[in-house]
Structure formats: structure tokens, C-alpha cells
Amino acid sequence: MSALDATGEQLSVREAIRTALREELARDDTVFLMGQDEEDGGSFEVTAGLYEEFGRDRVRDTPISETAQIGSGVGAAATGLRPVVNVSYSDFIAICFEPLMNQAAKMQYMFAGATEMPLTVRAIEGAGFNAAAQHSSTVHTLVSHLPGIKAVAPATPRGSKGLMKTAVRSNDPVVFFEHKNIYERTGPVPEDEDFTVPIGEAAVLREGADVTVVATQQLVGEALSVAEDRTDADVEVIDPQSLSPLDTDTIAESVRKTGRLVVADESPLSYGLHAEVATRVVENEFYSLDVPIQRVGVPDTPIPFSPPLEDEVLPTAEEIDLAVDRLV
Amino acid sequence: MATLDMTDPSDQRQALRRMLLIREFERAVRDNFADGEIPGFVHLYIGQEAVAVGACSALADDDYVTSTHRGHGHCLAKGMDERTLMAELYGRSDGYCSGKGGSMHAADLDEGMLGAQPIVGAGVPLATGAGLTAQLRDRDWVGLSFFGDGAFAEGQVHESINLAATWDLPAIYVVENNLYSEGMTYEKQHNVEDLADSAAAYGIPGVVVDGMDVEAVYDAVAEARERAARGDGPTLIEAKTYRYRGHYEGDPQPYRTQEEIDEWRENRDAIDTFATRLREAGVLDEGEREELQSAVEADVEAAVEYARDAPFPDPEEAYDDVFVEPNPDVEYFRERLGRTGGADR
């Protein structure tokens, strides 16, 4: 079933993630959650109610120690548990990059497969709250650059539930990025407890014949609104969902059809997801391209505090629209 | 490797044998690294044998330990096989990590060795995690982390001990204070006489032991293990010891004198001290140390021969174990680079 004809109950992204975690906690008693204020629902109330339902062994508050959270999660994962560690704002991954980059990502490789690493890290990223530079970053491209780590950043409730369940069940380390500005976004989510979305599979959210827009997280909504408003171009919108691994085939297939590509992602423009998607398309579909690929993102600045400043640097529907203008 | 009873003469001899094996293994690594047979970097454990053997002899088979960049001693003390370990140092496919880890990443989860760890201090949260698994899954094991005095300046060490103390995890933290952090003296790194004093800040016991005395280390770890198993939480143990070799092989060691090294070797050597004590107690017969020495020399020689004869890994194995589940990106890049072999190359 494609994302286009999804059916099921209407859930918000927040409820979809919570439902996934609840179902996995109930299904497998090696799954447990830890993070700051996790017993009270954690940042943005995503895990609200789970402590009451599953108790302190399964839903635990940690000291404010991001490095020890991930590091002990790695040790727990290597010895038989399935930790879901919430590091709250993704900016804080800076504090705990060591256990992520050197331990979680490399242990099973260095030990030649003698251990598995069923670790899930939840990180809340993105701007739009006037939360200033250290609570607004989008860092998924940094993490996607690490061999040995999988990174997902779904934009829809369906993708959020399906990918969270896959992440928890995965024997590989997965960083699950949640954009704080789309928790209220609602959509249909299959109620089946065995519904999952595979890591490495993009979702075609809108079919179109003329322009492909690969958009992530918050910008999926902007891309869809641009697609609805354009009368001169039939826009296809793809949510890659998984950033590493990346679904090259779905994107290449779309460009083969449309010959035009915009990549819209809230990370800084240099060396990021935009570049990766564009490069893969050039590697595979250069002769399908009618015009140069366009990128929409943050112009390599930290995210500022003051509302007009934040608005200035954040990618918008208008910028996606402008990028489409350059293609048609 | 089975727990030893350090009041039993046979087990005491076994502890001495383990210490001799570590020293002999390290001598062979020293010589064969100098001869260019062993790739990479090596950091030798010679001098500190009493800490690894004392601590691991007090542990159960199922207990987990994490090690340091100076990890060969911990590996052997925990029960890893000297031949397979040597093969790993030689980068051979018969090594513990099929040649993917080497000296600095040797691991064997079957023996409870969660890995040598050259990121200073980074093994400490891993042992905490092993303790967390024991608590949540109601297992009998404890997680023990070996780390150095240099690691005690790292933030994640303190975060991890605090977390374990807060949650009463079955964990033991053994800091091997060998007086040097890489090339820096202890005094340059720390402003306290005893690192174990920090235990007060976590509300757990802090114990200082003579790290050149295998029985003292054993007793401290045995007591910490009992405490952990009771559910009373972690213990911080500081073992005062000394590193005979440089930080790494080839280290010119401008930071200390030969006189200082000789003083420790001649008057405080852990193996000599223990052997003398056993002889005086009538546990070790005349000539028995030499017999043990000959036996470990033969074992290590066999290990070196085994490693030399072992094959290197197939280059294709470089792509294995990046992930448990297949990763399309790895295959994508291999294919585009023409590294998947076959007719396309």
C-alpha cells in the first residue's frame, strides 16, 4: 500500500510516535525508554502516559547526562536490551556524539558482528519556535554521514508510527528525528499493530508529471501546498523518510518521469541531504534532467532568535515555489 | 574464566600463572611489534598485571568488563584465548574480531569482554549499560569498567558513575592509576591525592588499593561485587599501579626517569611480590615459578606461531557487519565503485 492511499485512524505525529512506542513496549519486554523527564512524558509530551502504563523499569528518568544516556544505552543494547533513548533537542547530540559515532555506529563492525546494536535514539530537531540557535538545529545530515548509523526523519503520522516501530525492532542503531513543529500534523495511520514502514523506503505523497520535489519534515507541508497552488506544473512530492539509507530508486524513478528536481530540507545547505539527493540523481539520471537541480534550505547560518530573523533564514513555501519557477 | 578462590593454593598458583601469561604475551607483542610484524599501535600492560588478574579473578564468567587502549591484560585475565587474541593483533581472520578490531578493539562477548576501548573513558558508560541490563532483566551479572587515571578527567566517566549510583546499578568502576596519562604526570592531570575520594560525590564507597598486590585488588573487587549483587549499587576502586612501558610502543618517555621505572620494577613488582609471598607461605614449591614461566612462554610462542600462520581476511569482508540488516547505501556505493566484483569490473 502506498502512502497515497493510506487509510486508518486519524492521528497526530505525536500520537503516532506514542502509539508506536506503546505497542512496542507491550510487545517486547526488552524495550525500555530513558530520557530526561521521561516519566512525565518527556519533551513535547510525546511519551505522556507511558510511565503510568509501564512503570519505572520500562520508562525511566535519567540525570541530565546525554553522554551517559547514549553510552549506557549502547552497553544495554550490546547486552540484551532494546533501549529507546531520548536526548531531547537534537542540538544536544553535540554533547553525546562520542558514544553515537564511536560506539553505537562501530561496535558491531569492530567486533565483526559479535554483537548487535538494537539502539534507538530519539532527537527533536527543527526551527519555528523562536527557540534560538541551540534549540532549533536540524542535525540529521551530521548523523546521516556516520557509517554504521541509520537516520530517519519522517514527515507524516503514518511514516512516524511505521518507522518508529521499525527502529525499535531493528538490530541496527537508528536515530529517529522528530521535527518539533509537526507534532500536531494529523493523517491516517494503519491501526494494525504489525504495520511498519521499512527503513530505506521513501513515500510518494503526491503524484505529478512535471516537477519532482523531494521535501522533508516540515517542508513536506510547504511542498504539498505549492503543488496544490501551481497551475502551470504538475508537482510530485516525495518524502524520503529515511535519510540514511536513502531510497535512491524512488527518487530516480520520479526524475526519470519529470526531468526536474527540487530538494527542500531544513538543514544547512552545504554538504547535506540536498547534496546527497542531487548527487544520486546526477549519478543515475543526469540525462533525464531537463534543467539544473534546485536546492532549498537554510543558508548555512545558525537559527537566530528574533522572529523576523528566524523567518529570514528558514526555508519557506515561497522559496520552493521560486525554485519550481526556475525549472518550468 | 572461572572465579578463583584466593585462599586456595591451587587458585593462587593459577592467579600467578595468569599474571605471568600477560607479561609474557606483552613481551612477545613488544618484540614482534618492533620487528614490524604487528600493524597499528600497541599499548602494553606490563607492570599492571595484578589489577587485571586480581579484578577478573573475583568476577563470575557472566560478568561483563570494559577495557582500555591498554587492554591485552584485561582480555587474558577475563578468559580470552591468547592465540585468538594474538591473531587479532596480527590482523588475521582467525582473530577475535576477524581482523576488524586489532589491539585497540579486541572483544569477546562470550567471555564477557565488551571491548578494549581507545576512546579514553568511553568504556565506562558501556559497563553501566551492562549493569542496567542486569537490573532490568533480573540477571546475576555485574558490569565492571577498567579505566585509567587519564580517563578520570573525562566527563562521561563521572556521568556514568553518577547514573549507576542514582539507579543502584550492579556496576564496579576500577580506575588504574598508573601515574601517567599518555605522557602527562598524574599531578598535571589531577588535584587530589586519591581519585577514589570522588566516590563521596556519588554517595558510593570509594576504595584505594595497592594495585601491585593481586590479593588486595581481588579482595576489593570481591567485596564490590557482593555489594553490587545485593542491589546496593556501584563501588569506585582506585588501584595504585605503575606502567613499565611507555604510553605506546616507541614512546621516548621524556616525562620520567629510568631510575623511577627501575625502582618500581625492582622493589614493587607485582609478580615478584606475589611469587615471594606464595613461596614464603609454602604454596609455591622451589622451581615452580620457573615451571610456570616455561609453560606460559610455550603458550605465547604457540600463540605467535598461530597468529603468523593465520590467513588475512578476504578484502570483501570490509563490507560485512556495517549493519545487521542489509544496507542499500553500502551496496549502492560498492556497485558504483565497481567493488562488487564479477563481470562488470
Q: Layout of SSEs?
A:
The complex is a heterodimer of chains A (328) and B (345).
Chain A: E1 9-12, H1 13-27, E2 31-35, H2 50-54, E3 59-61, H3 66-78, E4 82-89, H4 97-104, H5 107-110, E5 120-125, H6 140-144, E6 150-152, H7 157-169, E7 174-179, E8 186-189, E9 203-206, E10 211-215, H8 217-229, E11 235-239, E12 242-244, H9 248-258, E13 261-268, H10 273-285, E14 294-298, H11 307-313, H12 317-327
Parallel strand pairs in A: 2-3, 2-4, 4-5, 5-7, 6-7, 10-11, 10-13, 13-14
Antiparallel strand pairs in A: 1-8, 6-12, 9-11
Helix pairs in contact in A: 1-7, 3-4, 8-12, 9-10
Chain B: H1 9-34, H2 49-57, E1 64-66, H3 72-77, H4 82-89, H5 123-137, E2 143-148, H6 155-166, E3 171-177, E4 180-181, E5 184-185, H7 186-189, H8 199-202, E6 206-210, H9 214-229, E7 235-240, H10 258-267, H11 270-280, H12 288-309, H13 328-336
Parallel strand pairs in B: 1-2, 2-3, 3-7, 6-7
Antiparallel strand pairs in B: 4-5
